[in-house]
Specification:
The chain is of the alpha/beta class. Helices cover 20% and strands 27% of the residues. It has seven helices and 13 strands. This is CoA transferase subunit A.
C-alpha cells in the first residue's frame, strides 16, 4: 500500500478479517473503543473470534454487540463487569474467558508488539493465577470444562515471579483522536491507556481516526504511536451513529446535593 495507509470505508478496513481470527481491541471501558470498526465487523457476519481487550463493552455497545450476536468464542480480559450477557455466556459454557491482572495484560500486549516472547512479573504469584485451576470454560453441567494451567515460576531476590507470555494477534482494532496517512497516531486522555499497546500487538493493525491530517502536520513529539505499527487508517465521521461516544456509567448529582 506504500506510505499512504488510508482506506475508504470501515467495511473495506475489516473486509479480510476471517472466521476465527484473533483480535486485540483497544479502549478502556467505553473510552476510546473502535466502535465504528466493531460495527462494520458485526455487519460482515464472521465470528468465532478470540478477542483480547481490557473489557468486553456493555450489553448494547462496543464489543458487547459482537458478544450478543454470538461472534466471540474467547475473551482475554482484566475486567468483565457491566455486561450481563457476558456473565450469562460464561456461566453457561458458551464463552471461554481468561482473566488477567490489568497491568500484566498491558505488558503482555506491549511485549508481544516489541518481539519479547515472555517476561517475569510478581503479579499473581502465590495465587490461583500462578497455581492454575481458574475456570476458563464451564461445561453444560456447570462443572469446569477447561481450567487455566499452572505458570512457570522463578525466584529473584527472594521474591517469586510468574512467567507470562507476550500476546500477538492476527488483527488489532484501535481508535485515535488524530492520525495521518502514514499511520502516526495521537490518543486523548484515557483512550491512551490500552490503544497504543493493542496496536503494537496486532500483525495487521487498523486505526479509525477522528481527525485525519496530512503527513508532516503532526509534530513528532506529539505522536503517541508511530506508523510502523499501523497498516490501515480509516476516518470516522462524527455523524456516524456507530462513532457515538458513550458513557459506561453516567453519574450526576442532584440539585440537593449541590449539582446542576
Amino acid at each position: 500500500m506504500g506510505l499512504d495507509k488510508t482506506v475508504d470505508s470501515m467495511d473495506e478496513a475489516v473486509a479480510d478479517i476471517p472466521e476465527g481470527a484473533s483480535l486485540a481491541v483497544g479502549g478502556f471501558g467505553l473510552c476510546g473503543i473502535p466502535s465504528a470498526l466493531i460495527a462494520a465487523l458485526l455487519e460482515r457476519g464472521a465470528g468465532g473470534f478470540k478477542v483480547v481487550s481490557n473489557n468486553c463493552g456493555v450489553d448494547d455497545w462496543g464489543l458487547g454487540l459482537l458478544l450478543r450476536a454470538g461472534r466471540i468464542a474467547r475473551m482475554t480480559s482484566s475486567y468483565v463487569g457491566e455486561n450481563k450477557e457476558f456473565a450469562r455466556q460464561y456461566l453457561s459454557g458458551e464463552l471461554e474467558v481468561e482473566l488477567v491482572p490489568q497491568g500484566t495484560l498491558a505488558e503482555r500486549l506491549r511485549a508481544g508488539g516489541a518481539g519479547i516472547p515472555a517476561f517475569y512479573t510478581p503479579a499473581g504469584a502465590g495465587t490461583q493465577i500462578g497455581h492454575g485451576g481458574l475456570p476458563w470454560r464451564y461445561g453444560a453441567d456447570g462443572q469446569v470444562a477447561v481450567a487455566s494451567p499452572p505458570k512457570e515460576t522463578r525466584v529473584f531476590d527472594d521474591r517469586e515471579y510468574l512467567l507470562e507470555e507476550g500476546i500477538r494477534t492476527d488483527f488489532a482494532l484501535v481508535r485515535a483522536t488524530i492520525g495521518d496517512r502514514h499511520g502516526n497516531l495521537v490518543f486523548r486522555s484515557s483512550a491512551r491507556n490500552f490503544n497504543p499497546l493493542v496496536a503494537m500487538a496486532g500483525r495487521v493493525t487498523v486505526a479509525e481516526v477522528e481527525h485525519l491530517v496530512e503527513p508532516g502536520e503532526l509534530d513528532p513529539d506529539e505522536v503517541h504511536l508511530p506508523g510502523v505499527f499501523v497498516q490501515r487508517v480509516v476516518r470516522v465521521f462524527p455523524d456516524d451513529p456507530a462513532a457515538t461516544r458513550r458513557i459506561e456509567r453516567r453519574c450526576v448529582r442532584t440539585e440537593q446535593e449541590g449539582g446542576a
